[in-house]
């Protein structure tokens, strides 16, 4: 049999046969004087086994390991591992379907699929054309993708009920072209700190925090104007100090 004939017999392509040769799964037969490979029935049986193992979900490296064990012991072991992996995939799919069911129970926000808790928060947010408010929504979606906590989102709900929050966003928008030493920075940072719900303090690291955010924080702040970034830095420092004082006060309580 030539390569096209053995490929058709087993139900694979000639390209697949050549790939199996390259991977060392199927020994390459000697060529005749005319340059053509001639395959035997034994080659077809081995090729059929490679196809069956591949259809079970084994990688070609795993197929090679199975074929190397004539006793078949490794085949049973690999198939057991494959079954366990499929069971894990089934559980992941069930989890994804549960999440999709939760997402479809209520209208999705414009930002797309997010956790149900964040979706409720975004739907409750007042309509505004504030650029900084839009950035806050984007950051919340990013946090959600990274695994943001439900308690954090729930703690933000009081802000939605504060009529002064939109005016704070407007003041932030006014700093879009301002320098870090703008005199409006300090008062605005104090005003923002004052409206932060106390429950959010649990999400703030202890201590004052670094003067310049690192990693993701630095990338986020680079998207702000110097004045807006300075406001954010001052607020984070203030919340860090509040968290530290709160922790110290709690640790210093006498046992009842």
From TrEMBL:
Which stretches make up the HTH merR-type domain?
1-69
What CDD domains would the database entry show? HTH_MerR-like
Which spans of this chain does the record mark as coiled coil? 79-106
**What PROSITE patterns does this protein's entry cite?**
HTH_MERR_2
Specify the superkingdom: Bacteria
> Does this UniProt record's set of keywords contain Lipoprotein?
no
Keywords from the UniProt entry? Coiled coil, DNA-binding
The record's annotation in SUPFAM superfamilies points to: Putative DNA-binding domain
The keyword Lipoprotein belongs to this UniProt entry's keyword annotation: no
Instruction: State what protein this is by name.
Output: MerR family transcriptional regulator
């Amino acid at each position: 049999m030539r390569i096209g004939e053995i490929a058709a017999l087993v139900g694979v392509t000639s390209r697949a046969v050549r790939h199996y040769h390259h991977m060392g799964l199927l020994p390459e037969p000697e060529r005749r004087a005319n340059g053509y490979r001639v395959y035997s029935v034994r080659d077809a049986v081995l090729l059929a086994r490679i196809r069956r193992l591949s259809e079970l979900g084994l990688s070609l490296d795993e197929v090679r390991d199975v074929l190397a064990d004539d006793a078949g012991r490794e085949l049973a072991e690999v198939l057991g591992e494959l079954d366990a992996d499929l069971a894990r995939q089934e559980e992941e799919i069930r989890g994804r379907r549960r999440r999709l069911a939760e997402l479809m129970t209520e209208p999705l926000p414009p930002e797309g699929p997010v956790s149900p808790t964040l979706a409720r928060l975004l739907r409750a947010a007042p309509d505004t054309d504030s650029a900084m408010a839009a950035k806050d929504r984007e950051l919340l979606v990013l946090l959600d993708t990274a695994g943001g906590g439900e308690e954090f989102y729930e703690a933000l709900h009081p802000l939605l009920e504060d009529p002064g929050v939109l005016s704070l966003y407007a003041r932030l928008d006014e700093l879009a072209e301002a320098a870090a030493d703008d005199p409006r920075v300090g008062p605005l940072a104090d005003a923002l700190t004052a409206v932060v719900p106390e429950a959010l303090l649990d999400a703030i690291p202890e201590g004052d925090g670094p003067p310049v955010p690192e990693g993701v924080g630095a990338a986020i702040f680079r998207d702000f104007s110097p004045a807006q970034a300075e406001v954010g830095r001052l607020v984070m420092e203030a919340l860090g100090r509040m968290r530290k004082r709160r922790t110290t006060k709690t640790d210093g309580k006498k046992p009842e």
